Structure formats: structure tokens, C-alpha cells
Amino acid sequence: MTKYAGKKAVVSGGTHGMGRAVVDALLAEGADVVLTGRDEHNLAAARDSLGARAHVVGCDVTDSAAIDALGTAVAERLGGIDFLFVNAGYAKLEPLELVTEEVYDRIFAVNTKGAYFTVQRLVPLLREGGSIVFTTSIAHGSGTPGMSAYAGAKAAVKSFAQVFAAELLPRGVRVNTVSPGFIKTPTMGVEASAEERAVFEKIGDDVTPMKRHGSVEEIARAVLFLAFDATFTTGTEITVDGGLTEVLALPAQ
After folding, report:
1. What is the CATH number for 176?
2. Which residues does the annotation mark as catalytic?
């Protein structure tokens, strides 16, 4: 018997990176999963590589009709669900003077509006005693240049999680967040050129006390701990950042 046999899960933003690592871990342990994405190439690759217990659904979380269609698809393919991972996100790093209204609106549409209404649509399908985990970011707790819009959007998501945790207590549904630091993904979590991403990754390795980036598998382990094992934990956040926000790394003597 595998660990998640019989469990039903939904992973938004599940075709690559951290979301895909969570999908892979769930499937490996016997769960049935609906995973979403927006990029057609990533959707096709997921359909080609995942087995029968994976249901790949295209969904643009900025589109309310698409979110409603996702809810219908989940109900048809899984019925009730045990776990929802709200992971779809978008980041573009720009200083205050360069942020356009278009970029600002997209950051909040994907990270904040999309997260909120995905939960609203899928909560009726969540079984009593189930759980929700959001992806936030260490950006929301620090004044990092170039991250004002993204940090604000993720701060809102953290607040959503705390309020949802209170509202869903009567159903025994736990709601928590995972806050990643610098994690090695195909995009490093930002819209940027390959050269810019390489610089971003090096900066991350330099400033992180553990002197490396995290892996998507490390994020997945934290997510699934909150999803299934942390049964006395709700409304909180696990930071997975190699000590960046809490540890002062002193230079070698």
C-alpha cells in the first residue's frame, strides 16, 4: 500500500517546476491528481509523460470561466478531493519606476485573484479533514528591490491563507503556505532571459546561508508534509530558503 493511495489532489501550476515535483511525488505514492497549466508545450509534455492517474487540464487562472471549467473537470474526474495545492504564479522583477500597469495587473491577476477564486471554486469539493497549501515567497517578508508588486501579491496570499484557515476550521480543513527562497526551476520563478536567470541564480547562491539553491523535491517534501502529516498545523507558513530569512551566515574566520 502506497502512502497516498486513494487520495485525490489538485495542483494548479503543476506542469513544471515546484508544482510538477508535487505532482510526481503524489503519483509515486498512489494518489490521483488533476494538474493544471497554461503553456501548451508543458501541458502536452505532461500528458505524454504521466500515467492514467494524472488528469492534465489547461487553465488560465486569470480567467473566471476557465476556473469554473476546472471545477467541473475536477468534479467529473475525481469527485471529492483531499488536497489542493495553489501554486500557479507569475513574477517579473522590476524597480518601482519601471513597473507598468499591465505588469502590475498580471502579477496580481495570476498570484492573487487566481489563487483566491481557484480556492473559492474548489472548496465545495474539498472533503472534511482535507487541506490546502499555497505557494507564497520569501519576498513578501523582506524589502527586496525589484519585487514590490510580486511581494505585495504574495503577502495578500499569505493573508488569504490565514483567513481561510479560520473560516474552514468547522470542516476540519487545514490551510497553510510554503514560502520558497531561491529554488532551481526552469525559469527560477521569474520572467527573464537565460542570462538574467543565470545572474539571478548566482545571486541567490551567494546570499543564501547554505550557499546553494533549493531543489523542487525539497519544496515538494515541505508541501506534502503540510498537506497530509502536519495534522495539528493550520494558518502557518513553512519557509524553505536555506536559512536566508532567519540565519546570519558569518564569513569564515
Report:
1. 3.40.50.720
2. 150, 154
